[in-house]
Amino acid sequence: MNITESATLAKKASISLANSNSDSKNNALIEISKALLERQEEILKANNEDIERAINENLSDPLLKRLKFDKNKIDDVISGIKSLINLPEPVGKTLAATELDKGLELYKISCPIGVTGVIFESRPDALVQISTLCLKSGNAVLLKGGREAFNTNRVLFNIIKTASEAAGIPTGWIHLLETRDDVNEMLKLDKYIDLLIPRGSNEFVQYIMKNSNIPVMGHADGICHCYVDSEADLDMAVKVVLDSKTQYVSVCNATETLLVNKDIAKEFLPLLKIELDKKNVELVGCPEAQKIIFVNSASEEDWKTEYLDYKLSIKIVKTIQEAIEHINTYSSGHTEAIITKNKESAELFMNLIDSANVFWNCSTRFSDGFRYGFGAEVGISTSKLHARGPVGLDGLLIYKYKLYGNGNIVQDYANKTKTFTHKKI
Amino acid sequence: MNITESATLAKKASISLANSNSDSKNNALIEISKALLERQEEILKANNEDIERAINENLSDPLLKRLKFDKNKIDDVISGIKSLINLPEPVGKTLAATELDKGLELYKISCPIGVTGVIFESRPDALVQISTLCLKSGNAVLLKGGREAFNTNRVLFNIIKTASEAAGIPTGWIHLLETRDDVNEMLKLDKYIDLLIPRGSNEFVQYIMKNSNIPVMGHADGICHCYVDSEADLDMAVKVVLDSKTQYVSVCNATETLLVNKDIAKEFLPLLKIELDKKNVELVGCPEAQKIIFVNSASEEDWKTEYLDYKLSIKIVKTIQEAIEHINTYSSGHTEAIITKNKESAELFMNLIDSANVFWNCSTRFSDGFRYGFGAEVGISTSKLHARGPVGLDGLLIYKYKLYGNGNIVQDYANKTKTFTHKKI
């Protein structure tokens, strides 16, 4: 089947899937988790093949770690599905209701977006999370995973498709794309696909946006900042900056730039450096920072760089306003934290920073669908339309307006023989 | 000032505008309505110049009508601003709140999108509506109106800018673009502009989408349908179809295609034709329709055409399913109505039709922000992301996540010395 045929089928399936009831979707999710358990040997075998090939191709350790899909990971995705089953039905909710006139009632009803195309990285658990989120929210989906996880993805896809369709979910609601050519073909199918969710580098997301008319929910770079204010608790600041930078360096919510208020810089930076040195974090800094601690010089490019590594750029600022301005200039709009004892300064920072997640006295690493309590996430959006920050089920929903009348015509209101009541129901 | 400078200023202003309080925004709206009244002679003079030039350029009567901005129109926009003032403050609302752990609280807070670029048609009242909606929702805006309304737009813009900035709204929150080159320059400024709202033809919206990386909220074609079911009240059906087609033909929510169930077609079509003939509506139909009434043959192209004129295409369908399938194939996803006495058929139609507005026993002409009770509207969206159908204030808002902690780090949860509580607050 080529991609256009897959997308046509998905569009067709999406219409009935949008109207599947809660029980049948939850039942299909139960069947999927059963099948994952029953067919786990098959999954582990496929994943071993992927791992072996990856080792032969000299993939880096962090990538190998992401690729690994063992018994624990299977248990994790199954427990993820269970929590998804327990979430309330997201489709068919009345979001607003208005009487336009007597006997003319308007309802705003939540519904799935329709057909989504999701392109994700090498973690095979992403395939399970994304497809089950789509199922729960009533969306058909075309999936494209990382090349490295080819065999694992194929088995997982097969399990999910077989189990869900046997449980009565419309045939053709889920498809697996396997090549980059498939992806390029998908980008043209704005007639059938309503939303693209590319997960990956900023360049990759930009490539998708430039080459498709389909709306994109962007999961892009994270150039995140910590700002240590003049009124910070310095011990807390060390702890939070250390976690923000080093708890897991290769993820989008890790901090890349530290801003430090000049009033506490002399005391704070040496304290922080002791801890960062223990973790072998490479430091670069502005000239003012270089006067306090021994670090290399930061270039303009450093403020714009997502290191995803044990590296941190440091800048001394004179005021909180300067920190806010630096962040609004260089941040990717993902996550920024302020460390201060002053609540007013915290509120100023959180209000004036134009980012999806703004934090007071805690690590930037908290911006994540699981930690936010969304269950799984489809991605983190740094765009400002539709969904922002960690995106769970809500990001896969839109609404339609249903208007119930009894022969009502607009002409009656145009010539003022009738008037609108516009009462909330 | 060139467009990049305008957009840079708008971005800067948008940050403080996002944090302007309700009173200062409402006060600015009051000042704008006062200034519109005080300077009405200036507006009328400018509009007369536009009208004279338009007459010299042989603009069509409907276009001249849209261009006209007289005393009544001024009163209308002022009363629109008054109803906007009375709407509750949309910014800073807590949309959700979760305790992630003791002393670690997450708030989802509504906020403006930031900087919007709106390109609208020849009606000068659109300039007032859009800019005041942006002000109320805390968004900076770059406006480009129809060329025909050049003088009127310039005066209106000047009044709104002067009055709002004198009332304390940040300088540079509003800009007027005057040429097509300006628009093309604006399309490149994804660094400063967060959202484009093009209003106009489908081709125009497609052009904008193809030539910009900025997210687009599409206000595009309306290929709307009425379906007269086998169980329709035929008198009601005549009345509703007539209103849907002829109440105002040049707008996107006017019906373009009529689908008629074969069981009532012989009785219904002659009744309808009498009324449509009185309004000189040109009819084209499928072969089955041609057997019942004397009409020209409809081509495949007709099902895809938005006439915006006194013309209707007619197709006989065997079942409601065939009607649904025809609509899901040819509709632009705007508005579709079913006329039937059978509630179950109505629900089936409204659930399976993938359009923004789905109506039972009433005219397609009702899909409109004013009729829906939204006050003004920025446009009607046929896309399925962010906002769908008539878009009022809500479509100009997004949210940010604020997380309040006390030194919390992710490492404590990674090594399970702490666990998330995820309690609703």
Automatic annotation (TrEMBL), chains A, B:
Listed GO MF terms: glutamate-5-semialdehyde dehydrogenase activity; NADP binding
Pathway it works in: Amino-acid biosynthesis; L-proline biosynthesis; L-glutamate 5-semialdehyde from L-glutamate: step 2/2
Cellular component GO terms held in the UniProt record: cytoplasm
Domain of life: Bacteria
Protein localization: Cytoplasm
EC number: 1.2.1.41
InterPro entries: Ald_DH/histidinol_DH (IPR016161), Ald_DH_C (IPR016163), Ald_DH_N (IPR016162), Aldehyde_DH_dom (IPR015590), G-glutamylP_reductase_CS (IPR020593), Glu-5-SA_DH (IPR012134), GPR_dom (IPR000965)
GO annotation (BP), single: L-proline biosynthetic process
HAMAP family assigned to the protein according to its UniProt record, in alphabetical order: ProA
Entry function: Catalyzes the NADPH-dependent reduction of L-glutamate 5-phosphate into L-glutamate 5-semialdehyde and phosphate. The product spontaneously undergoes cyclization to form 1-pyrroline-5-carboxylate.
Protein name per Swiss-Prot or TrEMBL: Gamma-glutamyl phosphate reductase
Originating organism: Clostridium cellulovorans (strain ATCC 35296 / DSM 3052 / OCM 3 / 743B)
